[in-house]
Amino acid sequence: MEQLTIQTLASWFGVTIEDTREVRRVATDSRDENGDGLFVPIIGARVDGHDFIDKAIEQGAIVTFWEEGRERPEGIIVIPVPSPLKALQEAAARYLAEIDPLVVAITGSNGKTSTKDMVAVVLEEKFKTHKTAGNFNSDVGLPLTVLRMPRDTEVAVLEMGMNGFGQIELLSNIAKPDVAFVTNIGESHGEQVGGRQGIAKAKLEIKAGLKDEGILIVDADEPLLSGQGFRVGYADDADGKIEVVETTFDASIFRYDGELFELKVLGAHQIRNAAYAIACGRQFGLDHAMIQRGLDRVKLTTMRMEKQMFGDAHLINDAYNASPTSMIAAIETVKSLVGFSRRVLVLGDMYELGADEQTQHVKVGHAITAPVTDVLLIGDKAKWIAEGISDASVNVMHVGTVEEAKPLLGSYQRPQTVILLKASRGLALERLVQ
After folding, report:
1. Quick one: which H or E segment has residue 378?
2. What residue ranges of the chain have pLDDT lower than 70?
3. Taking every annotated instance into account, which residue ranges of this chain make up the domain Mur ligase central (predicted)?
4. What percent of the chain has pLDDT over 70?
């Protein structure tokens, strides 16, 4: 926060406080350094932030939202509110409206973080840009992202996550986007919203706060998004059509709407994410040269199709998270790479898939065919992937834990070999190469 005084902050909630000190930071964790900051005590299922106000004061907080009716703490300015969480969200909406940047909102089952990174780096070619840090994409994380935005921000790129209905709608109404993305519809959190149709409905809540003149951009290859907004993808009738020219370990060459682009990031699904960035850049007036310069600077968040060497082998570390859709996309990337005689998939459990989790794992197995040569499956659920592998030329092994898998990797550290690591976050598959 910049140039926001305690007096102004309090006035947003109908409270008169004659204190003109500037509020320079904001935190919901009392352990965070928060000099001259606002502390927001979130009330969770197990922990109540109000209990840690003394620690927040030690860390430098000078003002706090405070649930009405509680005994007020000493040593800090108190702004009484019915709900500190809702006050945080309201403050973010007011601060965002005051700065009035262009807003890009991004949601989707997979690819939203990579799309966020690509959109931001492309738009930085023309605008002062602020983006969601890490995966601060929740009802707490998005408001914190907004309130940490410098006042000279021209474009805010905000990621939006969900695990149920109503959450994206809330975030969209805070953000009031000029451009909103639904990157795709996968399977994660399907059990909370009734499967993929429910996921599509929940993701499309992003339209709730879209400005009247705003634009919705969606995956053209997803039938559940048919008829929605500006469609980007490989489909012949896409509004923004993608055509892959070549994919190597070092770069992907593709055409978007007939124009040639290069992306030094692996994956056909990453090409789609880059296409979203191109569509957004064009919407905001960037030309081809500016967009390509931005794409040349793309560096994705760690463990998202991250390229590295593993002995003499080439390693693709995509272990940050996994769903059936993203896992199949990564497998197809490995199959498409040129210059490798051995292609190894190291795949682990996928979580939060609901009642049809076995079917979804088997579906991944159906995608595993030559030129894949070896598959190492890790975890109790991953064994179902083997049930879907029908190509007898693929060598398949299964172990229960990451620790059991470690000794087996040595045989893969050879020239002309590419290895993919992918599983849900809970498995922490990156431990294999640490």
Report:
1. strand 374-378
2. 188-191
3. 106-280
4. 99
Half-sphere exposure of 119 (CA within 13 A, CB side): 32
Beta strands in 164-301 (DSSP E): 179-182, 215-219, 230-233, 240-247, 252-256, 259-263
* C-alpha–C-alpha distance, residues 189 and 29, integer Å: 26
Binding-site residues? 108-114
What digits encode the pLDDT tens for the residues 212-261?
Answer: 999 999 999 999 999 999 999 999 999 999 999 988 888 899 999 999 99
Tens of pLDDT along 29-44?
999 999 999 999 999 9
What does R_g of the chain's alpha carbons equal in angstroms? 23
- Residues that constitute the known binding site for ATP: 108-114
The answer as to CATH 3.40.1190.10 being correct for domain 100-296 is yes
Q: Are 202 and 167 a contacting pair, CB within 8 Å?
A: yes
Q: What is the CATH number of domain 306-433?
A: 3.90.190.20
Contact predicate 156/149, CB 8 Å: yes
- How far apart, in whole angstroms, are the C-alpha atoms of residue 159 and residue 113? 7
| DSSP code for 135 | T
Q: What does the block give as tokens for 127?
A: 């605008």
**With respect to CATH, is domain 6-82 assigned 3.40.1390.10?**
yes
354-371: b or e for each residue (b if 16 or more CB lie within 10 Å)? eeebeebbbbbbebbeee
Please give the angle made by the CA atoms of 194, 202 and 216, to the nearest 5 degrees.
145
